Amino acid sequence: MSLDVALNVTVGTLALEIELHAERGEVVAVLGPNGAGKTTLLRCLAGLLAIDSGHVSLDGVPLDAPDRSVFVAPEHRPVSVVFQDYLLFSHLTALENVAFGLRARGIRAREARALATEWLAIVGLEDCARARPAQLSGGQAQRVAVARALATRPQLLLLDEPLAALDATTRAALRRELRTHLATVDGVRLLVTHDPVDAYALADRVVVVEDGRVVQSGTLAEVTAHPRSRYVGDLVGINVVRGVLDDGRFTTDTGAVVVSADHDAPKGAAFAAIRPSAIALHVDEPAGSARNVWACTVEDVDRRADRVRVLLTGPVPLVAEITPEALVALGIHDGDRLFASVKATEVTVYPA
Question: 79 pLDDT exceeds 80?
Answer without folding.
Answer: yes
